[in-house]
Amino acid sequence: MKTYLFVLGCLFTIISKGQMPYSCIRSIKLWPQSRLIDTLNGKKLSERDVTNSKGKIAGKMTTLITDITDPTITIYTPKNANGTAVIVCPGGGYGVLAIDLEGTEICSWLNSFGVTAILLRYRVPILPGKLKYELPLQDAQRALGLVRYNAEKWHIKDDCIGILGFSAGGHLSATISNNYGKRTYPAVDAADTVSCKPDFAILIYPAYLKSEKEAWQLAPEVQVSANTPPTMIIQTEDDPIDVQNALTYYAALKKFHVPSEMHLFATGKHGYGMRLTQGGISTYPKLIKWWLEDNWIK
Question: What global pTM score does this model have?
Answer without folding.
Answer: 0.92
